TrEMBL record:
GO terms for biological process: cysteine biosynthetic process from serine; L-homocysteine biosynthetic process; transsulfuration. This is O-acetyl-L-homoserine sulfhydrylase. The modification N6-(pyridoxal phosphate)lysine is found at K210. GO terms for cellular component: cytoplasm. Keywords: Pyridoxal phosphate, Transferase. The keyword Transferase applies.
């Protein structure tokens, strides 16, 4: 589509951006369920390995179906390139490992998805990569957390389950001032709410398993290179060879030609097809997720058995203003609320008929979970407090069902609790 594509609006780009016609005019990306790709001559394959010609070799390195998904994701995030991975955690691990080396430090928001917290706190620490955790709302603490060893700043657009909304543009300004790349996990906001590159993210990561897939039928992840960071820096000598050859594509080149290839957390062709199907309806679904979530939040706030509601779209939320500005008046599909105690939270979850009790977000279906006893059960009480996890808390990923059915489900569940 080239130049013409740039003029497309976001909702149209979800459907047409980065796509190319399939064989015989097929309007769908073919699922190339193949591990390897054959060439007639030894010379052709040598040319591809040497980088003198472009071609598929082996699905861990590249696959036409995965390639199409990558082009589409790059188009909707306005990135220069994207790499699809087997999961959101694979995207985070691969992209972080591409930036940092042993002895380096990561400065991360303390309000994190559980897997990312574990990666930083335990796994990377075991490889000599320390992470400093800071409250993402306290920008003075963010800046004070940077030192000579800091090589990456990591933040989520909406903390889960804390529901805090950091000011991404302010983070970007700090990162830029110190010559450190900003990596943003935009899973919870999705590209529909936040244009991460415009806000100043250098690298955007997603768990595409959630809202992008939208119907909970495949796990996937994505790394999008905004092309904005200057990797020709004494802080990043390990990017030198990639910068020399690939210039602004140095990050993607290091990911693709080294870290992603070596770790091997590649996306599967069938999953990439399904994720691409989900992408087409992202805007429509998010619109409904957002409007339903706001109505659920208001309903819960007015309910006598509910002690508190945390949703950035409520105008008494401390994050209302920044979320409104950053997300263009939309606030996402995720909220948390409190009952009197854990037993009451369990009763409400057990009473719900429509909402499913499971560990996921971003499905068409309304989902609930008690974070303290499940996804955050391994945290110490101090970490739970830091992450905004409490015993009386229920997290809701509001689905796109008819709002009346969702509200009736919660009304009945609270009534009986
Ligand atoms: C789910 C999630 C991840 C991890 O993604 P997987 O696809 O489950 O590996 C990372 N970040 C956030 C914010 C998530 O919600």
């Amino acid at each position: 589509m080239g130049e013409k594509e740039k003029k497309l609006r976001f909702d149209t780009k979800l459907i047409h951006g980065g796509t190319s016609p399939g064989p015989s005019g097929a309007t769908k990306t073919p699922i190339v369920q193949a591990s390897a790709f054959a060439y007639d001559t030894a010379e052709e394959l040598e040319d591809i390995f040497r980088g003198r010609a472009v071609g598929q070799v082996y699905t861990r390195i590249g696959n036409p179906t995965v390639d199409t998904l990558e082009k589409r994701l790059a188009a909707i995030e306005d990135g220069i390139a994207a790499v699809a991975t087997s999961s959101g955690m694979a995207a985070i691990t691969t992209s972080v490992m591409a930036v940092v080396r042993s002895g380096d430090e990561v400065l991360s928001s303390s309000s994190l998805f559980g897997g990312t917290y574990s990666l930083f706190h335990v796994t990377l620490a075991n490889f000599g990569i320390e992470t400093r955790f800071v409250d993402p709302v306290d920008l003075a603490a963010v800046e004070a957390g940077i030192n000579d060893k800091t090589r990456l700043i990591f933040v989520e657009t909406i903390g889960n389950p804390k529901m805090d909304v950091p000011d991404i543009a302010a983070f970007a300004a700090i990162a830029k001032k110190h010559g450190i790349p900003l990596m943003v996990d935009a899973t919870v906001s999705t590209p529909y709410l936040a244009r991460s590159k415009e806000l100043g993210a250098d690298i955007v990561v997603h768990s595409t398993s959630k809202y992008i897939n939208g119907t909970a039928n495949s796990i996937g992840g994505a790394i999008i290179d905004a092309g904005s960071f200057n990797w020709q820096s004494p802080k990043f000598p390990h990017f030198e060879q990639f910068f020399r050859k690939y210039r602004s594509f140095a990050f993607t080149a290091r990911v693709r030609k080294l870290i992603h290839k070596d770790f091997g957390a590649c996306a599967a062709p069938l999953n990439s097809f399904l994720l691409g199907e989900g992408l087409e309806t992202l805007a429509l679904r998010m619109e409904r997720h957002c409007s339903n979530a706001l109505q659920v939040a208001r309903f819960l706030q007015a309910h006598e058995k509910v002690t508190w509601v945390n949703y950035p779209g409520l105008d008494d939320s401390p994050f209302y203003e920044v979320a409104k500005r950053q997300f263009n008046g939309r606030f996402g599909g995720l909220l948390t609320f409190g009952l009197t105690d854990k037993a009451a939270a369990f009763r409400v979850i057990n009473n719900l008929r429509l909402a499913k009790n499971l560990a996921n977000i971003g499905d068409t279906k309304t989902l609930v979970i008690h974070p303290a006893s499940t996804i955050c059960a391994d945290y110490t009480p101090e970490v739970k407090a830091l992450m905004g996890v409490s015993e009386e808390q229920v997290r809701v990923s509001v689905g796109i069902e008819d709002i009346e059915d969702i509200l009736e489900d919660f009304a009945a569940a609270l009534e009986e609790a």
